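Input structure tokens:
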């Protein structure tokens, strides 16, 4: 099995994208085996080895972000990489986000002139990381294509009432993305929450995880890292660039 797969979505031929999985790498133990994160206490030599393997399939080294579950966005190239989304109009600059349950989104347009990658945990999603990115990309909504990558599915994503209430205060439609399991606990559908934001922005070309359990990071231990499942673990990467 390869340590990545190519997303299936109808993008222009010059748009290249990739989603890594956790196999065929050098990391050991909890990080077994294709961990790409340097901040999770894995052996840095193993991470460097894995990143070098990844770089063999890329036009340049990815622009790794320092992700903090924010709604911050940077345009690449940039010396400032404290953000949870990046975009670029330049060729051969690789936008990348790391996840292990949070939702990765890859973005381009019909003409293939701009790309972006978003890390959307519930905090970033709530605070507008998707909207901030689309606003900075400055594209007509009907020209935007979105790919939703592997993330935790609703069956495994337990949150408190404060999370549900915060989303529902911003979009009444968000109520349908939560399933009650007790008075104060809910199961959240992060895919639906993202789609509500995208539809509100006017985006309709959305691809990727249609059956969320198929891409569920929590349920598929062999393929994906999951922070909710394992605590200390590695990270996958979602990448996109203009060739």
């Amino acid at each position: 099995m390869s340590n990545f797969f190519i997303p299936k979505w109808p993008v222009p031929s010059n748009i290249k994208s990739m989603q890594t999985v956790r196999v065929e790498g050098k990391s050991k133990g909890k990080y077994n085996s294709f961990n790409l994160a340097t901040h999770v206490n894995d052996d840095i030599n193993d991470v460097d080895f894995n990143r070098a393997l990844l770089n063999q399939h890329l036009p340049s080294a990815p622009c790794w972000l320092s992700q903090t579950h924010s709604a911050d966005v940077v345009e690449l190239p940039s010396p400032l990489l404290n953000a949870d989304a990046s975009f670029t109009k330049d060729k051969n600059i690789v936008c990348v986000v790391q996840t292990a349950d949070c939702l990765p989104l890859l973005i381009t347009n019909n003409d293939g002139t701009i790309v972006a990658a978003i890390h959307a945990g519930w905090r970033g999603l709530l605070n507008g990381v998707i909207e901030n990115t689309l606003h900075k990309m400055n594209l007509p909504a009907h020209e935007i294509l979105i790919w939703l990558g592997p993330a935790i599915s609703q069956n495994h994503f337990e949150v408190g009432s404060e999370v549900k209430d915060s989303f529902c205060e911003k979009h009444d439609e968000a109520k349908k993305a939560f399933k009650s399991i007790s008075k104060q606990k809910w199961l959240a559908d992060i895919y639906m929450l993202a789609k509500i934001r995208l539809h509100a922005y006017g985006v309709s070309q959305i691809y990727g995880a249609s059956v969320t359990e198929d891409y569920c990071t929590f349920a598929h231990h062999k393929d994906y890292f999951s922070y909710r499942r394992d605590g200390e673990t590695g990270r996958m990467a979602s990448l996109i660039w203009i060739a």
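The longest strand covers residues 103-109. The chain is about 20% helix and 25% strand.
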